Amino acid sequence: MTKKILINNATILTMNKNKDIIENGVVFIENDKIVDIGKEELKNKYKKLENLKIIDGEKGILMPGMINCHTHASMIPFRTLADDYKDRLKKYLFPLEQKLVNNELVYIGARYAISEMLLSGVTTFCDMYYFEDEVAKAAEELNIRGILCETVLNFSAPDAKEPYGGLNYAVDFIEKWKNNELIIPGIAPHAPYTNSDESLIEAFNISKKYNVPITMHIAEMDYEWNKYIKEYGLSPVAYLNKLGILDSNFIGAHSVLVSNDDIEILKANNVGICHNIGSNAKGAKGVMPILKMKEKGINIGLGTDGPMSGNTLDILTQMPLVGKIHKLFNKDRTILPSIELIELATLGGAKVLGMDNKIGSIEKGKKADVILLETESVNMQPIFDYYATIVYSANSSNVDTVIVNGRVVVRNKKLISGNFKDIRSDMINLTKKIKEVIEK
After folding, report:
1. In this structure, are residues 377 and 60 in contact, taking their beta carbons and an 8 Å threshold?
2. What distance in Å separates the CA atoms of residue 374 and residue 376, rounded to the nearest whole number?
3. Which ranges carry the Amidohydrolase-related domain (predicted)?
């Protein structure tokens, strides 16, 4: 049966080329696509259709679904562990993952993390972790769009007994999921310093062969910068460029420690960059030079990083952080106005992922990935500027309805594509097991 949804009585922030705002707007969705957009009178054109689901926006704000361009979703069972631990990645997280991460943890963690994302208005996420097949299963079940990339490391990992075993896993994973409607499989060499030249080149060749994304942490760590400058006289970005593995399928996470020359390299290779402001601030990594990158026309999106690093998976928390931290850092309150921050969270993220022809804005022919924010809660009035309201007033509790690929997955602030009570119960039981291990 053809699915038909009519959303009316909402202000539409299209995020299209002209940044059109339609008050008292109407969107008509058929199956997985946005078919029509217009003013209130458009309702009359479709309201008598059979099997039509009508959603009253109740004067809320309808906008494109938000995009989380970098996370490690299934790390969520470890959230709030060792938050203030020095050199946490090498001394705490990697050893903890070796002890505890398995198929079950990744699947349970992914279901919980995806629930959090959907309930906060994230409709697409780009993931880097282990056992990505389990993440894909969870994403398909709960109906979220995922760019899911298998991790490659120069030591044994939870899902690979041999160093670089993630390469073989990634090939099998890509073959299995490459034609899925919601899932785009990819590959994720963890970082330059946790891979060899050979593994980086092989990962890149896999990405080229299958035309899938390759994502990597780059230019995030001081020791990473120092290593490549000392050993090769090159920055991490320049080193990757020398290897010839930067291209339009490449998604660079963090990119805090980059020079002007690095920015030119990233632009020349059409690399997409994910800005993880919350994680970088909490980890005291530094501030990404977003203004210089934007000036050069680099595609930039927003990410949360892992929920153990940034403690959240929602992009609504990241937008105000990006605005406030960069205004403070540059001592200029006029930079990065709200409309630009929302663009980073929607169409900007879509461009980073190479999906701006399908998602990121509310336009005819695009995928029906939209969210409705209610405006009745105390924090949502008055509204003089819709963009500023979303960036600086809204939070995830204002997300009322979420539609992904034409399917309603959140309605009246409740997850309906899965049983959250069971998902939460599984997470709590898993937390008890983790606690027993770390207390031994």
Report:
1. no
2. 6
3. 61-409
Q: Which amino acid appears at position 232 of this protein?
A: Y
What is the rounded distance in angstroms from the CA atom of residue 409 to the CA atom of residue 143? 7
The two tokens of residue 344 are: 């980073």
How far apart are alpha carbons 135 and 74 in whole angstroms? 8
Question: What is the residue-wise DSSP string for 215-242?
Answer: EEEES--HHHHHHHHHHHSS-HHHHHHH
Bridge partners (DSSP) listed for residue 124: 67, 145
Spatial distance between the Cα atoms of 345 and 359, rounded to a whole number of angstroms:
12
Q: What is the C-alpha separation between 46 and 39, in angstroms, rounded?
A: 13
- The pairing of strands 407-411 and 122-129 is unpaired
Q: Are 249 and 286 in contact (CB under 8 A)?
A: no
379, amino acid identity: N
Output DSSP code: residue 92: I
User: The pTM is what?
Assistant: 0.97
How far does the chain reach from its first CA to its final CA, in angstroms?
55
As a whole number, the mean pLDDT across the chain is 96
CB-based contact 399:352 (threshold 8 Å) = no
Instruction: Please name which of 277, 237, 247 lies closest in space to residue 186, comparing C-alpha atoms.
Output: 247
pLDDT for 158 beyond 90: yes
| Both structure tokens of 226 | 């120092």
Mean pLDDT of all residues in 388-399: 98
114: its two tokens? 């995806």
Query: Within the chain, which residue ranges are assigned CATH 3.20.20.140?
Result: 66-353
Q: How far apart are CA 270 and CA 247, in angstroms?
A: 6
pLDDT band of 212, cuts 50, 70, 90: very high
Secondary structure of residue 292 in the 3-state scheme = helix
* 3-state secondary structure at position 177: helix
Structural tokens at position 38: 């217009």
Listed in order, the ranges of the chain carrying CATH 2.30.40.10 are 4-64+367-415
User: The domain 4-64+367-415 is classified under which CATH number: 2.30.40.10, 3.90.230.10, 1.10.10.60, 3.30.70.100?
Assistant: 2.30.40.10
Number of other residues whose CB lies within 10 A of the CB of residue 135: 30
pLDDT band at 1 (very low <50, low <70, confident <90, very high): low
- How much of the chain, in percent, has pLDDT values that exceed 70? 100
| Res 89 pLDDT > 80 | no
Which CATH number fits the domain 66-353, given the four candidates 3.20.20.140, 3.30.230.30, 3.40.50.2300, 3.10.25.10? Answer: 3.20.20.140
* Mean pLDDT within 174-202: 98
